[in-house]
Design goal:
With 420 residues, this protein is an alpha/beta fold. Among the domains are: 62 residues, no CATH class; 104 residues, no CATH class. A 9-stranded parallel sheet has the order 1-2-3-4-5-6-7-8-9. Helix 12 links the parallel strand 3 and strand 4. Helix 3 crosses helix 4 and helix 16 packs parallel to helix 17. The longest helix is centred in the N-terminal third of the chain and has 22 residues. 28% of the residues are buried.
């Protein structure tokens, strides 16, 4: 009985412990349910550090030492009023400079300050003014009608005339009419280079007398717009490079460009990825045969065919200035290779030819190999996916290597000595 009683003595102590545990649990439970407490009110240490970097960016601009995801957060928070001496050579993010333009500067107001220093203007997207008709907006237009563009009214883009003509020393103009990352806000009007757009641009370019490089790419430029642009560029006093790649230029547009070749100082012409067929190729070839200035011609991703390829070959037999020509992906085959082999045997100025992604074939490869036998100037000859055969491709590669090696060993022309 005594032992039993002795064992029963700790019971009050156990009860007291359970009571304290219950009380503690109750207190913790009350803290969690406190409506004034929130985990969101406690910022992460990383966020505090980024805020400090943004607030002290002028004194300590450490953007290049941050991780990419942290750089993005800092750039999104940087104030647009920061001194240009701090941001100009450090921040290359387009979104930041776009915020600066919209919040801080008016472009036309800056022109008087910088017009003597601007040599290049590059615009990779145009945002047209969107005019919403409340009545049309209320109509329930089906997706199929929207895709067909029914009821769409052409929307003209920003007229560059006032901007471009106010830059007297502009030498390069790179343009793409369209919108990047439009997402669910896609509309065909955003990507239409209208005839009025073309008229405005042609008038502006014609007044840029010092313009050397003009690039208008991925802008749905068709034949009519090409002819309008060409008329503004005829007899241009300074233009040496024209890039109209990735557009909708067909034979009529190519014929207009052919006239431009011999009425300008063009040295580089890029018509890659258009819709030029035989007739357009023949017009370009006729101009090329008479030209003595053009050094680079890119006709990749067109539809020349063998008749167009042969026309280009005959032009190269007469031309003595072109150094590089790209005829890749033009549905060329053995007949074109036969004529180009004659070009290789006679032409002494071409250094680079690209016939990749054509159906030249093994016999055409042999013709090219024979023509290259006496050629000492060609150093690049791209025949990838041209099906010329491994042996022909290997032997042509050996000849090109020999030409490159000889070119490296040849003495370089020295500039004329300055008069004393």
């Amino acid at each position: 009985m005594q032992q039993a009683a002795g064992r029963s003595r700790p019971v009050p102590s156990l009860r007291r412990s359970q009571s304290r545990l219950t009380a503690d649990s109750y207190c913790i439970h009350r803290i969690i349910e406190d409506p004034e407490w929130s985990l969101a009110a406690v910022p992460q240490l990383t966020e505090l550090c980024l805020q400090h970097i943004v607030h002290n960016f002028t004194q300590n601009p450490i953007l290049d030492r941050l991780l990419p995801e942290h750089q993005r957060k800092v750039l999104d928070r940087l104030p647009t009023a920061l001194p240009l001496a701090v941001t100009a050579n450090l921040v290359s993010d387009e979104d930041y400079w776009k915020r600066c333009c919209t919040e801080r500067w008016q472009v036309l107001e800056l022109i008087p300050l910088c017009k003597d220093y601007v040599r290049k203007l590059e615009v990779d997207q145009f945002l047209p003014p969107l005019k919403v008709d409340p009545e049309e907006e209320a109509d329930d237009i089906s997706d199929s009608e929207s895709d067909l563009g029914l009821g769409e009214v052409p929307v003209h883009h920003y007229d560059l005339g006032a901007l471009v003509t106010a830059l007297p020393y502009l030498e390069e103009l790179h343009l793409t009419y369209g919108v990047k990352d439009c997402g669910m806000n896609f509309e065909w009007n955003l990507f239409k280079f209208t005839y009025q757009d073309c008229c405005n641009l042609a008038g502006a370019v014609k007044k840029c007398h010092k313009l050397k490089v003009f690039k208008l790419t991925r802008s749905n430029v068709d034949d009519d717009k090409t002819k309008l642009l060409v008329r503004s560029l005829l007899d241009h006093p300074a233009l040496v490079e024209l890039n109209l790649s990735h557009n909708l230029i067909g034979d009529t547009g190519a014929q207009a460009v052919g006239k431009l070749i011999n009425r300008s100082k063009l040295e580089t012409l890029d018509l890659c990825n258009n819709k030029i067929h035989q007739a357009g190729a023949q017009a370009l070839a006729q101009a090329l045969a008479q030209n003595c200035i053009l050094t680079s011609l890119n006709l990749r991703l067109n539809y020349l065919g063998d008749e167009g390829g042969e026309a280009m070959g005959r032009a190269l037999l007469a031309n003595a200035t072109l150094k590089s020509i790209h005829l890749g992906s033009n549905m060329l085959s053995e007949p074109s290779a036969v004529l180009l082999s004659q070009v290789l045997a006679q032409n002494a100025t071409l250094t680079s030819i690209n016939l990749s992604c054509n159906h030249i074939g093994p016999d055409g490869g042999k013709q090219l190999l024979e023509g290259l036998a006496g050629n000492k100037t060609l150093t690049e000859f791209d025949l990838r996916l041209a099906e010329v055969g491994q042996e022909n491709e290997f032997l042509i590669g050996q000849m090109l290597w020999a030409n490159r090696h000889a070119a490296r060993l040849a003495p370089q022309p020295q500039p004329p000595a300055e008069p004393l």
